[in-house]
Design a protein that fits this description.
The complex is a heterotrimer of chains A (102), B (117) and C (482). Chain A is mostly helical and 102 residues long. Chain A has 3 helices and no strands. Chains in contact: A-B, A-C, B-C. At the A-C interface, helix 1, helix 2 and helix 3 of A face helix 6, helix 7 and helix 10 of C.
Chain lengths: 102, 117, 482
């Protein structure tokens, strides 16, 4: 039986979170940026679940439910905004969002 | 840990053999590219259009709605587990939750988002 | 284990229930009646906000934890809820005409405003990070949609996308921070952290968690270097929503930030004094210097709102519980100044032609003396000229810094206010001493804008001359930290 190691899970979640954060900064396609944000949220979920393992409380798991729901709501709002932008401009590249400047 | 070593060996061998076969045919094989040969389906039907068509935007709306109503079920699992202990409190809470969802559903329905055309 | 239904606690969250109920009701009315005129929905929104405000006032003397500690009712929450509701009422009065003028076809405008306000109210009155997170997201998600609601407007769509992506990015930071805090302490209640930190048990994970939460809030409050979205979103959004964001989101996020950090992480604030100090200086200076060169009045006000966040941070970094009442005072004054200023910006525009560049304001005093007068009052208050509330707010904030020993910070703050005076006074100068550059046509002096402007002016002058009452209220509010 392999020992449960909170630190290893935490490390994994930190790596996932960093990948997501770097992705948000470097990628140019709106949908992919959003997927990276989802990756960050899921990294947080992993951290919550593994923390539940050491604290034996349920709060962490409940929080995961809420994060998942919020992520779904964000996805719905985000897709609606992407569809709107695509209808107006024909592209969802973040680079070409340049009407607002100053 | 010991009982997993067999799996590890199989994993290594499977990967090696797969790499070997693909690699050998890549290095040793002779290639004479022609237009017909490079088409996605060399044998069978002639292709009639690009494979990467744009998906209609309507699917997005359905995906969005599905996602929202699908994820709400998540809250019913923990509720179902403890519903015996929660008694009336749990029932009323879930009732309010469902009512709010229902308002959303009626709204979506009346707004015409559930119709295909 | 049996759980009893806390019926008696329901009355204590009556304001929230009213807003939620009316929000749902308005959605249904909108789809079933398909009313052409949206002002009916607006009036219902006013009714709900008004009755919620009455309940908030009635309940303001209570101070108790509700629903197993997930929610709470205290003086800080009540004051902020009152402020947010008054702000909502002002924005809705403004919107009654604005929505008609811009021919908004979506009836979702008012329900979303209600939901967003509900999110703010939930956020400011909880001591549990789970509830705070849910409230924050309810607020943000509604505003992402509101920003892009004027559908055929490319700028609004772009602002909506930017706000959405950066807002979601920020909430990911916040959630991960909460996850780390939970991992290191096993608690989601902010009072729980206090005990852990008081024991001197500060692991690296906990410190990183707190830092990530601070970053999440800094995005919402728009502190440099997390401010990138602010000018773009404020410019692209419908002006009524800009007022709503500038006043409401900022107040709600700042109060929550204050509550979380002053309840639990006060030792860390003292420890990080230098970093926060620098952050306040950078925020003020960068925003003020950038605002100097703005030609668009909405962008200018956006940078000014970042600068004001910097001034408030000056009082925040001192970490003095008693003196933090100056933060509350500043937020209240700031809300009225900003709503008023944006109501004047709306007044200047017409459908499809918003007249946002500062040139449009040239010679305004000759043609529309009333508008010029109102805008002058708001800009003077933003500058911090006595006897307006903006002056007292700045005075309290900077004297807080001096009392806490941050003399240099106060001096930098005052210097920044002087720089800021240049760009506020420039607009006033344009209005009174320049000849008109372009024809802006008849402006739409609707009673709804005039009412909002007059309420804001009255409030600014009243609390500027007699700041005592509001200050006592603010002191009562921050007494929750003791």
């Amino acid at each position: 039986m392999v020992e449960f190691s909170y630190n290893l899970y935490l490390l994994l979640s930190a790596i996932l979170f960093t990948i997501g954060a770097v992705g948000v900064i470097t990628r140019r396609n709106g949908i992919i940026v959003f997927m990276c944000i989802e990756l960050m949220l899921n990294a947080a979920n992993l951290a919550f679940i593994s923390a539940t393992g050491i604290h034996k409380g349920l709060e962490g798991m409940i929080f995961v439910f809420f994060v998942m729901t919020v992520a779904a709501a964000e996805a719905a709002v985000g897709l609606a905004i992407f569809v709107m932008i695509f209808r107006l401009r024909g592209t969802i590249s973040v680079d070409q969002m340049n009407l607002l400047k100053g | 840990m010991k009982e997993y070593i067999g799996i590890l060996i199989i994993l290594i061998f499977a990967n090696l053999i797969a790499l070997l076969i693909v690699g050998l045919s890549y290095f040793l094989g002779e290639r004479k590219p022609k237009k017909v040969k490079l088409e996605p389906y060399e044998c069978g039907m002639t292709t009639i259009g690009p494979a990467r068509r744009r998906i209609s935007i309507k699917y997005y709306i359905f995906a969005m709605l599905f996602l929202i109503f699908d994820i709400e079920v998540l809250f019913m699992y923990p509720w179902a587990v403890v519903t015996k202990n929660l008694k009336l409190f749990g029932f009323i809470e879930m009732f309010i939750f469902i009512i709010i969802l229902l308002v959303g559903y009626v709204y979506v329905w009346k707004k015409g988002a559930l119709e295909w055309e | 284990m049996d759980v009893k239904f806390p019926v008696d606690e329901l009355i204590l969250i009556a304001p929230e229930i009213i807003l939620c109920g009316f929000g749902l009701l308005l959605l249904l009315i909108e789809v079933f009646l398909k009313t052409k005129s949206k002002s009916f929905l607006g009036i219902l929104t006013l009714v709900s906000a008004g009755s919620a405000l009455v309940f908030v006032l009635k309940l303001s003397s209570f101070s108790t934890d509700l629903f197993f500690g997930l929610y709470s009712l205290d003086s800080l929450g009540s004051l902020t809820k009152g402020l947010i509701l008054v702000m909502l009422i002002l924005v809705v009065i403004m919107s009654l005409r604005y929505v008609e003028r811009e021919e908004v076809i979506s009836g979702e405008y008012y329900p979303l405003l209600l939901f967003s306000t509900l999110g703010m109210m939930i956020m400011v009155s909880s001591k549990n990070l789970l509830t705070i997170f849910v409230g924050l997201e309810l607020m943000s998600l509604s505003i992402y949609i509101l920003v892009g609601l004027f559908r055929d407007n490319l700028k609004a769509a772009e602002a909506s996308l930017k706000y959405f992506l950066l807002g979601a990015f920020a909430s990911a930071f916040l959630v991960y921070g909460i996850a780390l805090l939970y991992g290191s302490t096993g608690s989601l209640d902010i009072k729980g952290y206090l005990e852990v930190i008081a024991k001197g048990d500060t692991s690296t994970v906990l410190i990183i968690g707190v830092a990530l939460i601070a970053v999440g809030f800094a995005f919402k409050i728009a502190l440099v270097p997390f401010h990138m979205w602010t000018p773009d979103v404020y410019e692209g959004a419908p002006t009524s929503i800009t007022a709503f964001m500038a006043a409401g989101v900022k107040s709600a996020a700042f109060v929550t930030f204050l509550r979380v950090f002053y309840t639990a992480f006060l030792p860390l604030i003292k420890q990080w004094g230098d970093i926060l100090w620098l952050l306040a200086v950078i925020t003020m200076s960068y925003a003020n210097l950038t605002a100097l060169v703005q030609q668009n009045i909405k962008r200018m006000l956006a940078y000014s709102s970042i600068a004001h966040a910097g001034y408030i941070l000056v009082a925040f970094v001192t970490g003095e519980k008693i003196l933090s009442s100056s933060i509350i005072y500043y937020l209240v004054a700031y809300t009225f100044m900003n709503v008023g200023a944006f109501s004047c910006v709306i007044l200047m525009g017409r459908k499809g032609e918003e007249n946002l560049d500062i040139d449009s304001y040239a010679g305004l005093s000759a043609r529309h003396p009333f508008v010029a007068f109102c805008l002058t009052i708001f800009l003077l208050s933003l500058t911090g000229v006595p006897p307006l509330a903006g002056f007292m707010a700045k005075f309290y904030v900077f004297s807080t810094a001096i009392k806490a020993g941050y003399v240099w910070l106060a001096i930098i703050g005052v210097l920044n206010s002087v720089v800021a005076a240049y760009y506020y006074l420039r607009v006033i100068m344009y209005m009174y001493f320049r000849d008109p550059v372009k024809e802006i046509g008849r402006i739409d002096l609707s009673p709804s804008y005039i009412l909002v402007s007059l309420i804001c002016i009255f409030f600014l002058i009243y609390t500027g001359i007699l700041p005592r009452e509001l200050m006592l209220l603010a002191e009562g509010a921050v007494s929750v930290f003791f």
